[in-house]
Amino acid sequence: MVYNIGDLIREEVIQMRTVAMILLIIGGINWGLVGLFGLDLVAAIFGTFTLLTRIVYILVGLAAIYVAVDYWRAER
After folding, report:
1. How distant is the alpha carbon of residue 60 from its chain centre?
2. Neighbours of 31 (CB within 10 A)
3. Using the 8-state DSSP alphabet, how is residue 38 labeled?
4. Ramachandran category for residue 40: left, alpha or beta (phi over 0 → left; psi -120 to 50 → alpha)
5. What distance in Å separates the CA atoms of residue 65 and residue 62, rounded to the nearest whole number?
6. What percent of the chain has pLDDT over 70?
């Protein structure tokens, strides 16, 4: 099977957007729980300020930046 490089790049972009959106949903739900109930679900699952918790927070932040830049570029 022969792949077009444009198709491969397009597929990677779609996958990146999907991962970013999932991370934003996780972050949004977590912040909603923090605001409503004082419950940090990420910290409850992985521990307060463990390496894994910090990685999740960093990934959510990077996803937000990615989606913001992607949105800004699409609007231009």
Report:
1. 4
2. 14
3. S
4. beta
5. 5
6. 97
* Model pLDDT, residue 1: 62
Among candidate residues 57, 51, 68, 52, the one with its CA nearest the CA of residue 17 = 68
Contacts for 59 with CB less than 8 Å, ≥ 6 apart: 23
The amino acid at 64 = A
Q: What is the model's pTM?
A: 0.83
Domain count, the chain: 1
Domain residues for 28? 5-75
Q: Among 26, 15, 24, 29, which residue's Cα sits nearest to residue 67?
A: 24
Q: Residue 24 in contact with residue 63, Cβ under 8 Å?
A: yes
